[in-house]
Specification:
mainly alpha; disordered N terminus; elongated
Length: 264
């Protein structure tokens, strides 16, 4: 899910006042290599870039390979099935309209168990090199990511101006947070779902707590999924790249400048 402040640091202050240039990932960019928390601005290794920076005959950049797109869309289908079947199990009017509650429950359970499988299979072999490189990016936070988040507290016009000047990597801070939250909530739902489905070994307090956590986590997932869909529809180029795997240089220059310059 993808996605500004008068108190923004001086490094990006010119953006709010109409300036045209902001140092990328800190003012020391040209003087010395980034270290520590600025590691997100370091150049990626050749093996990380080789599988994804290929340029097509139309001049568009390779953003996601077939394995990454397959994992995304298989998981998207599984999540949508989980949301619908979960709603049918929880909301009585919808459950009555759908009917066959036992079948709906089985579909819900086994789709939940299958959710980690595409990711595990994709990471298991050499075909997952680009996916592993992107997972490393999700875990790499730069100064630009922190400034991107700080811009959330600015007015809308300032927020856009500030973010337009930040040299972001392939994924912005909002996408990194979403990825971390999704991984965490998926594990919570899997664990609580197992307790609810195979409840005999667990004490009553565990079953009650698992039901409470599962229901509210599922509701949060539904809200995030709706937000993700709306944001994807609002960025047509990014959405198309999830089908084709390619993105224009113009989009990369606006939204992922550090990645375009091979610094992420």
């Amino acid at each position: 899910m993808t996605a500004d402040a008068t108190g923004a640091p001086a490094a990006i202050g010119t953006a709010a006042s109409g300036g045209t240039e902001v140092p990328a990932a800190g003012s020391r960019r040209g003087a010395e290599p980034a270290t520590g928390s600025d590691r997100g601005a370091e150049p990626a290794t050749g093996s990380d870039r080789g599988a994804e920076r290929a340029v097509g005959s139309d001049g568009r950049l390779a953003r996601f390979d077939r394995v990454e797109r397959a994992v995304h869309w298989v998981n998207a289908v599984l999540i949508l099935v989980l949301v619908f079947t979960g709603a049918a199990l929880y909301l009585e009017p919808l459950g009555q309209a759908v009917g066959r509650r036992a079948l709906v429950q089985d579909i819900h359970v086994y789709c939940g168990l299958a959710l980690p499988v595409p990711l595990v299979l994709a990471l298991a072999g050499p075909w997952g090199r680009a996916l592993r490189a992107d997972l490393r990016r999700f875990n790499r936070w730069s100064r630009s990511d922190r400034l991107w988040l700080r811009a959330l507290f600015s007015e809308r016009g300032q927020r856009r101006a500030l973010r337009s000047q930040l040299p972001m990597g392939k994924f912005n801070a909002g996408q990194k947070l979403n990825a971390a939250w999704t991984a965490g909530v998926a594990l919570v739902l899997l664990a609580t779902g197992i307790v609810m489905r195979w409840y005999h070994p667990w004490p009553l307090s565990w079953r009650t707590g698992a039901t409470f956590v599962h229901d509210w986590s599922a509701l949060a997932v539904g809200v995030v999924v709706v937000g993700h869909v709306f944001m994807a529809l609002a960025d047509r180029d990014a959405l198309v790249s999830m089908f084709t795997g390619r993105i224009s240089r113009e989009w990369a220059a606006r939204h992922a400048r550090a990645w375009l310059d091979e610094k992420d």
